[in-house]
Amino acid sequence: MIRQSAVWAAAVADVLLVALFVVIGRRSHAEGLDLAGLWQTAWPFLAALVVGWLVSLAWRRPLALWPSGVVIWAVTLVGGMLLRAASGQGTQLPFVLVAAGTLALFLLGWRAIVALVARLRSRRTAS
């Protein structure tokens, strides 16, 4: 059974990484880092992230790359873009592609690292 602390740590990591994605994006376009601007950019992705967690039942296996991580990434990307479009924010193809890559790196990357470390530890203890 997954410990509650792992679920919370994974959820917080995902939220912080989506926030980092927003900060990096706003800075790269010389947009302000004021709270209102950050929230305007972040809320569609954060809302979609929550939906991704619900759809994937991520609390059952929050550290798993598949299916939790992949579903969370896909729902965060697609849902975030749909919410951006519905709220009148841009969804140009270059932005979608950069968001897809960055969110994959962030939301899947840390899970891949956790899986690699776990695999290396299990090999070390088996030897």
Low-confidence stretches: none
State the share of residues found in helices, binned by percent: over 70%
Biggest sheet overview: none
Strand content: under 5%
**Strand element count:** 0
Kindly state the mean pLDDT as a whole number?
A: 95
Assign the structural class, choosing from mainly alpha, mainly beta, alpha/beta, alpha+beta, or little secondary structure: mainly alpha
The string of secondary-structure elements, in order, is HHHH
* Distance separating the two termini: 25 Å
Oligomer: single chain
Please state the overall shape, judged from the principal axes of the Cα atoms: elongated
Number of helices: 4
Radius of gyration: 16 Å
Descriptive terms for the model:
single chain; 127 residues; mainly alpha; 4 helices; 81% helix; 0% strand
Give the secondary structure arrangement, pairings included.
Layout: H1 4-28, H2 35-56, H3 65-86, H4 93-126
Task: Describe, in plain words, how this protein is organized in 3D.
The protein is mainly alpha-helical and 127 residues long. Helix content is 81%, strand content 0%. The chain contains four helices and no strands. The chain has helices at residues 4-28, 35-56, 65-86, 93-126. Helix 1 runs antiparallel to helix 4 (93-126), helix 2 (35-56) crosses helix 3 and helix 3 packs antiparallel against helix 4 (93-126). The chain is elongated, with a radius of gyration of 16 Å. The two termini are 25 Å apart.
